Each structure stands twice: as structure tokens, then as C-alpha cells.
User: Fold this.
Amino acid sequence: MHNSETSRIVTEARDHIANVVVNTTVDSRDSEHGDRESVVREENLNEVFLTSTSQSSASVQDFQAGRHSSLASPWQVTEQSDFDNFSSESYTSTHELFAGLDQASLLQAVVFIEDAYKYRSISHKMDPRALLLYRNYNSTSIVIFRFVVIFVLHVLVIFEHPSSLTLTSDLRFRGERVIVPCWLTEGTEFLCLLLLVADTAIRGYLMGRFYFLRHKWLVASAIILFISLTDWSVSVALGCYEYIRFRRMLRPFFVLSNSTLMKKTVNCLRRTLPEVASVLLLLALHLFIFTLFGMLLFPQIRTSSNSTTTGNNSVLNTFTTTPIPLSNNTPAISVDKEASQYFGTLLDSFMNLLVLLTTANNPDVTMPAYQTNRFFALFFIIFLIVGLYCLMNMLTAVIYNQFRGYFLASMQASLFRRRLGVRAAYEVLSKRKLEFHTSKLGSVRVGVASPVIKLVVKKAKLSPVVSRALNTAIDEHPDAVYSSSEFQKIFGELDKEVEHKERPVVRWFENPRLRMAQRVFLHRYFSYLGSVVALVNVLAISFELATQYDSSVGSSHSILRILNFGFVLYYVLEQIVKLWAAGWRRYVHEKSNIFDGIITLALAIGEIVSTAKYRIPYSPKNNVDDSLVLLNIIKFVNIFIIVRLLRIIPHIKAMSVVASTLIDLVKNLKAFAGILLVNYYMFAILGMELFHDVIKFENASIANSSSPLFQCGTYQQLGYWANNFDDFAAAVVVLWDIMVVNNWMVFLEAFRKVTTAWSYLYFIGWWLLSVVIVLNLFTALILENFIMKWDKSLHSMGRERTQSGSRFEESTHLMSVHSMFREQLQEPADNELLVELSQHKYLELNR
Assistant:
């Protein structure tokens, strides 16, 4: 704005306000008192308007030079464009709405709203400089940069000694590792650690000493950084070739500390452990009792050494290559085999039953005894019924119940932080007005006006969906002045995660026949017909592949290709008439139409290419067989036809709920998958430090030998040479194999032989953490999500569905963890929020 225009607006505003104030003086105050009030109002109006026109006029700068300003920064909450919509006639009302507010107050309100939106705590400094740094610190670019630094720090383990840069981890064929220079890996790590030190220092400064010492995660971060830098110095001094580096196991802490949801999950896990420990203790007691029973039922029996072999009949020992002769003493030998192999010692008995609890060695562990007496099977059946089907499922129920309770409490705390941030924004916006009005004007209504809220929403960093929802709610009452409860209600739109767009209306044709055709093609039964046709198409593909596979996929004029050509024609016509009947906007609004359209387009392209090269399949000429191009085209078409069958999912209630639950996992699994990855990282590093290079492949001739040099079922005989802890990537694969628990007893025995029996603790600890706890948490998340989806689907069953896409839209709606629990949360009381705000270290509220 030019200087002359700015001066004109200021003069006009002053004159207008002075006239209004003089004419509306309360209780017949004298003109001198009215003049003082007009001067006060005039000054406050200039404070609001003129702070937004920096460098625009010398007179404005002179006016602002003597004005109170607590924000010594070029950042401005208000700009001239924020007031462009106000005409000269509305200056008085605008002045009333913004009276008493300065840039610092508006900045505090903006930061509080951003904290509420992100579920962040408001426990930080409130001075303008700290708030500006706080906003920059939490900006998207800085957050991404922080995660890049943490990612690089974790990826270094692949390149550090011993590097995972080999084609295979198999001890027989691994070859030499690629050696990354020490200065590169250690220098990169040092730079990442310094950046994290700076990050922690900035967070500590923003929170202040009072809140820093009460923030356990931040204090722990500072301690871990100190340990990491100390350990880094030791590594550099030793030349970077030592296996044991304690700091590598501490790296996942930075992943946890920078994810709010992961921190909640960890805290819930920590609080759930006491209840889980009670069930685990009961499970351990169950194992111990059956261990003693097994040793008593299957004692070792001394057999005669002069047993002879009768004929050619023999039984091959499962773990040896020595044939056991069949004789009159065979039952005794079987019992002795059970005892010596599975129940020889207390530790062996316990470990074999623990493995049996995961069914990894079933029925191998039962066969020697069962071969002797069929009643011995009852021992193992009872053990599995009590342990696997009762105690393990009870453990899942306890974890689900306790975790759900603690996680619900954590979500309640997040809701409290959001409402507290909104209430804090209201307090700083209304407090200044209250101070201004009570000291200058007497009794007036105090609240936060719509233009003020709109200005705060405009400056706050919110998602487009939330911003549009807030602006829409504010525009419904543009002249309103909101109380605290109304202010909270307005910002309830922060909970909105998905914008539900209005479905475009159908433009009906005037011709009755065309309108009737539109109704037919837009009816849900027409969509059902398309799903039935897709199902018939897949059944035809299945039949042809089962009966005439070679001719079906290798001939240009096969029955399968003739059928598919006809079905694809139907799919194309179906999408054309749908697009004609609904119109472009209505067509693309339905996700099911987009899915069908993409698949149909791909099928049409495949058939066009096939027809251009091999002619229409109905033509009796130019039949082509065994063409690689033809084979790929037929595979392409059939795969997309099978994929198109997925359109049937939204039309089946149970299938739709299951599918939507799986889709929700994409959004909600981030925190739980992060916890599992953190466990993988820490246990892989620990496994490298405990078991690196303990398994060796010494005899090179074994690789080409077919003789039975190893016991059957052992690590060596099964060829598990690639499963080791010699580098990080190999260790992760071993942990995955153990988590699956299939044949995990092979790893237990292999590493026990080359180390000690104490190695069992490592593998049992990993099984307990990954399988028993984390995967059960994953099960709890699925259960909670499925139950909520199922309940919602039951409530919606009574509604009439006249459009084909309505169920699909509902089934594909992603629910966050917060939205899953939102209906069960309670709104915090107003006095609770005020008490919390009154205890804030840096926020002063004069109430």
C-alpha cells in the first residue's frame, strides 16, 4: 500500500472511531472523558492496523516507534491483506474485535493451535523469540531432516565393520567383504551424533530447564548421546574393527523418542508387562511341571549291547544315521531314545517342551514314546491343550485387555493435550481484550471474535482438510463472538481426518427413455451384474487352466483367449455406459469406478496389442503357438481379470469389513511396525556381538560331498550356512526365521554347541519379545479395529443403499489409532484445563 493511501486510512479510522465513541459514551460521561476514551481506542486501533504495514510509510514507522511491542522480530502475525476485506464503515467493529491484541498474543495463539493439532504438549517457553524458533523447529522440512539423520545413523550398520556388502551370507560362498573406509563411516556417525546433540540442545532450550528435567525421554536422549560419543571415541582409537559397540544398540532410542505414537506404545508395553509377567510365570510353571513329569515317565533304560539285527527291518533314528535293530527289546529302546534324546537332562527336557509349545518339533518329539505305547501320546496332548490352547490364548487375551486399557488412557491424555492447547489459545486471545476493556471501557462482552479466529487459522500450519473445515464453521457465523465452550466446539474440527465431499448430482436427460437407461446403468444391481460376470470369468479361467493349461496359455486362438476377448468387450462397454450415465464428475467420485476403469483400460490395451499382432481370436486363420510375446500378453490379461474380481469385496459385508481392517493396518501399523523394527535392530546387534564367527565351515570338501557326514536335522545337514550372526543383514534373517518358529530348535542346538547353554537365553528372549508380546499387540490392534468396523457396519445395515459405491467408500475409509478410540474418550472438564494452565511455568493468565 502506498504511503498516501496508508495515511488516508489511518486518518479516516481515527475520525470515524472518535465520532462513534463520543456519540456512544456510557452513563453520560463528559466530553473530556469521552475524548480520552477515543484516544485510547484510536491508539489500540493503530496498534492493530499499523503493525501490519511495516516499511510502508514513514509516518506509520514513526507512530509505531513509540508503540509497545513485545515482538522484536520481522515476523508478523497480521498483514495488511488480513484486513483488506474490512471497509471504512467496519473499522469500529473491527477495532472492537482486535482490541487489546498484539503480535505476541496472536503468535502464542497460533502456536497453541498448532500444538493442539499435533497433540503436542504446550510445556515450552512463551516469549516471541522462543516461539519463532519453536515453529521452525517443528516445521516439516526440519522434521524430515531429523528423520533423515536418524535413518542415516541406523543404516551405517550395513557399512560398518563387519559390513553386509557381500552377495551372500553363506559361509561356503561368501567371499571377501567390501571394506568401507573407517574415516567415512565414523565421520558420518560423528556428524549425525552432533546433529542429534544440537537437536536435543534446541529442544532443551525451548522447554526450559524446568520442563527439561521432567521430560524423561529428553533426559535419556542426552545421556545416550553422551554414551554414544564416548563409545565413538573408543572405536576411533581402536581402529574401527571391534565388534562390540554399545552405542549401536542405543541407536533405536532416537527412533522411539521422535515418534509420539511409538512412545505411547512403549509406555503401554511397560505398563502391561506386570500383568503379562503373571501369565508368563504360570506358563513357566506349566513347562517346569511337565518337564519333571517327562523325566519321570521316560527314564533312561540300560539296554543290552548284544542286540542283534533281525533281517533287514530297522528304524532310522531321527537325528543319527545309525540303524536301530527291531527285536523284542524295541519298545524299551524307543523309551530310552525318548529319554536320552529329549528328556535326558532337566535343561534338555525344558527346552524340548518349550519348542513343542510352538509346535516346531511336533510330532518328532512324541514319536519315540508313541511308538512304544499309544497312551504316551496323552502326555503331549494334555501338555499342548493346557499350554498352547489355554495359556497362550489367555496370554493374548491379557495383553489385549491390558494394552487396550492403557492405550485408551494414553489416547485420553492426547485428547487432553489437544483441548488444553485450544483452551490456552482462547485464554491468550481473550485475556488481552479483557485487560483492555475492563481498564478502558467498563462492562463489555469479552470473547474471541470470528475474524480473530479466522486470522489464527490462516497463520497456523494445519492440513488443508482441517483448514477448510474450520473456515467453513467460522463462516457460518461471521459476526459471532465466541465463549470458551464455543471456541472449543469450533476447534473440534481439528479431529477431522478425512474430508467427506458431496457426491456430485447426476444430470438426468430430459428424454424419458434415456433417463430410464440412466437409472438402469446407475442402479446397484447393474454393479452386482458386473461382479457376477467377473466371477464367471475367473471360474472360466480356472477351468481352462486346470484342463488345458498348455493350449490355453500358448495359443492365440485358444478357448481361454476367445472367452477373455468376449469378457473384456463386456467390461469396456460396462464402463462406457457407466461414464455416459453418471457423467465424468460423478464417475470419478466413486473409487470403485476408478478401480474398474483402470483395470478395464489395462485389459483393453492388452487385447488391442494381441489383436493387432495375432488378429481377432475368432478368426480361424493365423493361429500362433508357443510365442513368448503371446504368452506374456495372455498372462497379463488373465492376471488383471483376476485382480478385477476384487470389485466383489464391497458387496459382501463380512469380506468388506475384513478388507477395510487390512487397509486400516496400512495407516496404523507404523508405530507397531516401528517397535518391531527397533527390536530387530537391537537384537541383531546383540546377536552379532555374542555369536559372530562362532560357526565355521572348515572342510571345503563337504560342499561337494554326498555322504551323510552330519546328523539328520542338524544345522550342518540342513545346509543352514547362510543363517549366521556374522553381519547385520544375516542376523536380521536369522531373527526372522526364529520369529516364524519353524525349525527354530535347529538354531538353538547349533549355537549351543559352539558356545554354551546360556545362549538359550538370547533366543528365548527374542521369542518372548517378538512372538509372545509384540505380535500379540498386533493381534490386539486387529481385534480392536475389526470390532469397531463390525459394529459400525451393523449400525449402517438398516440404511438403504441406492448407489453401488457407497459401501466401497465406507469400507476403504482409513481410521487412525486416535479415531479408533475417539468415541470412547471423555471430554476434559473446563476446570481441569484451567488448573493445568494455571500451573504452566511460562504462561501468565490474570484471571
